[in-house]
Amino acid sequence: MPSDPVRFAPLTPDRLDDFVTLFGPQGACYGCWCTYFRLSPKDRDAFGKDEKRAHMEARIRRGPPPGLLAYLDNEPVGWMQIGPRADVPGWNNPRRATSPLPDAPADDPAVWAISCFFFARGVRGRGLSRDFVAEGIRYARDRGARLLEASPIDEAKHSKSVGLFVGSTSTFRRAGFREVARAKPGRPLMRLVL
């Protein structure tokens, strides 16, 4: 774990350059620019990394903040996508492990999701996701969320696995989340009542 305290901030338009710096010229994982759950599969396949970047930048400028940035020594080192389920339409697809349950519909603005993480190479595998989830809980609660959901991965080959972009089940369990459904092996839908 880094020795300096981690600082968190909502991704507002004035922090767009920090987001771009963190994601780098390739746009994080395979040029995604954190649009995986924001775009339809058709658009995801059709868009190149530049179109995905433009899509995400427009979303950031439009507001409200689509997530949180983490900083160490004033440098952006992490990202967590968090907000109402409706803001990540791909997360609500009925064929996904993340499919909404009847008591937490996707169009309820008080039902939030933590859907994605990205960390700078130098801080991966150091447990920052635990701090991020704790901050996300505070952030969602302060903005009126009644439920916070996640669909992490049970096991990864190693602590720096790209599959951990959804977080690890153990991290969410330690934060108080409970499994409420399991539509796919290894990917529980977890929930914290706020």
Explain what this protein looks like in three dimensions.
- There is one protein chain.
- The chain is of the alpha+beta class and 194 residues long.
- It contains five helices and seven strands, in the order βαααβββαβαββ.
- Strands 1-2-3-4-5-7-6 form a seven-stranded mixed sheet, sandwiched between helices.
- This is GNAT family N-acetyltransferase.
- It holds the Pfam family Acetyltransf_1.
Layout of helices and strands, plus pairs?
Elements lengths: L6 E4 L5 H8 L17 H6 L2 H14 L4 E6 L2 E10 L26 E9 L8 H15 L4 E4 L18 H6 L3 E7 L2 E7 L1
Parallel strand pairs: 4-5
Antiparallel strand pairs: 1-2, 2-3, 3-4, 5-7, 6-7
Mean pLDDT, rounded to whole units?
Answer: 89
Number of helices: 5
Could you state the oligomeric state of the chains shown?
single chain
What is the CATH topology?
Answer: Aminopeptidase
CATH H level: which superfamily? Gcn5-related N-acetyltransferase (GNAT)
The CATH architecture designation is 3-Layer(aba) Sandwich
Alpha carbon gyration radius: 15 Å
Compact summary:
InterPro entries: Acyl_CoA_acyltransferase (IPR016181), GNAT_dom (IPR000182). The chain has 194 residues and is of the alpha+beta class.
Task: Give the tags.
single chain, about 190 residues, alpha+beta, Aminopeptidase, 7-stranded mixed beta sheet, 5 helices, about 25% helix
